[in-house]
Amino acid sequence: MNKKNIVFCADDFGMSQQINEGILQLVQKQKIDAVSCMTNYDKWPEGAIALKNQSQVQVGLHFNLKAPNLPTLIALAYYRLLKPKTILAELDKQYKNFIIHFGKAPDFIDGHQHIHQLPVIRDVLIAFYNSHLRNTDTWIRSTYNHQTHWKARVINLLGGKRLDALLKKEGIPHNANFSGIYNFAHSKDYASHLEQFIQEINSDGLIMCHPGLEAGFRLDELKVLSESSRLI
User: Which residues fall within 8 angstroms of residue 101, CB to CB, at 6 or more apart?
Assistant: First the structure.
């Protein structure tokens, strides 16, 4: 951990071999504190084996829905057209797939593209937490943030603020604040973005990242995080 007690979390583990390998490099170099895993992808089972011996990081469930696309999902969520039973069944399936291959419950749960903060989905997640994880140390990622980037403001408006309030109301452990949001098209400047994330985050906050060996923003993030000396 660092002086501010910030959790650096690498998302999307399990999505591809290149992402797995990039994240594992950072884990082995002790550059990150947590890994969020997508258990409904083919590369999860073998990735889980590699993560099992890495006790220095927290390992969580990165709940995701492969369909519909994000804009459609947001619309369906806000029109309350999502079926809670369908969402619950998928969450339960991914949760069980986590335990089957990793051997224990996740240290935390969050959502790919922050879907866990959306209406209906957040209600299902909180109900699932209360029925399965209330007496554990598992926590849920809050996406409420104080960044000024337009993407950050959209995240707050689409459920970040509401989810944070619900987590507090339900007494569910969560990170104090959130950062790591930027335009992936500007990943060549990730070193500057990272410095800003660190400056603006408060103690007990979480900074997400998306490293990997795939060309583009993932590789740009991986290079910066690999060379950074501030993480441990």
Answer: 39, 44, 45, 48, 49
Q: What residues pair up with 139 in beta bridges, in sequence order?
A: 108
Q: Judging by DSSP bridges, how do beta strands 58-63 and 34-37 pair with one another?
A: parallel
Q: Which two tokens mark 59?
A: 């390992």
Read off the pTM.
0.95
Neighbours of 196 (CB within 10 A): 16
Read off φ and ψ for residue 207, nearest 5 degrees: -115, 120
Q: Give the whole-angstrom CA distance, residue 38 versus residue 13.
A: 6
**Does a structural domain hold residue 1?**
no
Instruction: State the burial class of residue 80 (Cβ atoms within 10 Å of its Cβ: 0-12, 13-18, 19+).
Output: exposed
Q: For position 167, which CATH number holds?
A: 3.20.20.370
pLDDT tens digit string along 148-197? 899 999 999 999 999 999 999 999 999 999 999 999 999 999 999 999 99
Helix (H, G, I), strand (E, B) or coil at 58: strand
Would 127 be classed as within a structural domain?
yes
